[in-house]
Amino acid sequence: MSISLKDKHTFGCTVAAKEYWEMSSIAESISALKQWSGVPYLILGGGSNILFTQTEVPRVLAVRMLGVELLKETKSFVEIEVGAGVPWHPLVMQTLQSGWYGLENLALIPGRTGAGPMQNIGAYGVELRQFCTGVNVIHRQQLKLQFLDAKACNFGYRSSIFKTEAKDQFLISSVRFRLPKAGFHQPNTDYGAIRETLMSKEIDPDKASPMQVAEAVMYIRSSKLPDPNELGNAGSFFKNPIVPMDQVESLQQRFPQMPVYPVSEGFAKLAAGWLIDQAGWKGKSSGPVGMHKNQALVLVNYGEATGTQLWSFAQNVAMDVFNKFGVKLEPEVNLWPPLV
Ligand code: FAD
Ligand code: NAP
Questions:
Q1: What is the pLDDT of residue 55?
Q2: Ligand 1 within 6 A of CB of 234
């Protein structure tokens, strides 16, 4: 009997899985991977970063390994190991309440912990890689357990080995973090929106506690981003493009107000949302699909959109941005089936 995935992913499209298995241990996962060797299947966490472009998925392995284990504690930090199935935002709150800091800017990101390393989740100037020391994985063909340290994960901007060289090679079973304690951590309040929100609450951004920063992040996110429970979406649909400085300079001559964030020698990050807005797509829709009115980077399902309709709209947006700015937008959201 097939299982509906409509409420198991945040775009809320009508999709069904012919087989759907929830795995709460490594042994169960290995047994499933063994049975499905050589046939297509999807590993699913919270479904907040996936777009289904077909209405049927043959097999789904839903990762539900739970548990937060304290591996080491010193005066200045703790090291913890977190099951891949642990929901992310409650983990952030649990760490802050325990006096273990660092993840405050990543509050309210939907999904489960195991997907965090996939794109090195990031928000408001903080990325998972700053606190992740490595991941435990199951090799999907060899069915072997491995520990990949942070270097081996090759984390980059919204990227890792799991989205590049080792795509579809591993199931992440748990993630390790090293989190500083009070007195050994200064929260990052550099992003304008965080500073403004803290100041509006009469909190000095340079003296804000990690919990106050998390609360500011939650406040900003809830007032700006569409709630997937009310409006289907998967957050930012495209990555912010990283482009060479000579291209940035020639764009700046045409668009002097364009936001530019230098990232490394000779390269800068552009805001994909700004490009989409300038191209006239912010708040624009076609039938049940559109780009959100407050956040141009968020592709939205206003009702009963299919994955194909969403993908086709997104491609039109990307093509138009390319024609107007010569900048290629790449999806941040994962497609099923994957693009070949
Ligand atoms: P899923 O959507 O279930 O899976 C994503 C991908 O990872 C799929 O390819 C899946 O096959 C693979 N995968 C999942 N779990 C595993 C595993 N254990 N082992 C191997 N592969 C696995 N992202 C950010 O980086 N920053 C943000 O600020 C942010 N804000 C968001 C806001 C909203 C409103 C929404 C809807 C999304 C946002 N996202 C953000 C995107 C998303 O929430 C994150 O990328 C999140 O980590 C995805 O987790 P998930 O469990 O839902 O992954
Ligand atoms: P925003 O504050 O309107 O800023 C727009 C873009 O400019 C962001 O994408 C951000 O890049 C960049 N930016 C802003 N200030 C910056 C600074 N001081 N230094 C470097 N880059 C800066 O963004 P928003 O849409 O409201 O999102 C706020 C944060 O939440 C961002 O970090 C964003 O990545 C994150 N977020 C992510 C998702 C997702 O699905 N991936 C969804 C919602 C929000 P960065 O994106 O690189 O930070």
A1: 97
A2: yes
